[in-house]
Protein: Glutathione peroxidase
Amino acid sequence: MASIYDYSVPMVDGGELKLSDYKGKVIVVVNTATGCGFTPHYEPLEAMYEKYHDQGLEIIDVPCNQFNGQTPGTDEEIHEFCSLNYNTQFPQMKKSNVNGEDALPLFEYLKSQQGFQGFGHGPKALAMSAMLKAIDKDYKKNPDIKWNFTKFVVDREGNVVARFEPTADMGKLEAKVAELI
Structure:
């Protein structure tokens, strides 16, 4: 049976980040974008990284251009944007797909462990639901990543314990991480 530690993610420098190197750590895997309404999520992600990294938190940032072309730049331009605007220090991977036949195997695994459970409530959740329903009336029935800044949380034993949609309160993500640290 597969484990999170069987996967790797392509890095900007051409290497591979092996998740087995993160055994015993709490991991947040997030697909990101530089031109999205959720791009400000970089700020609380970086704050969480700074707060918990020394206690065992790792964040894996996978830029993705599959959602309305909101990550148009090169890997270097994306890194520069994040460094300059959000002072991100967590590792940023090579821009990759998270859905479809070219999706990173890691994301196929994550989706198999934590499927889509809804956007929650509130104006952003309603807007996301309406937008996706216009694209695919059955979007709720598949585990695909729905938009930028979907976050998966992995505990110290390698279990994918939570999935936070982009509309989820970032405080709830931090509370989950703090519980696992």
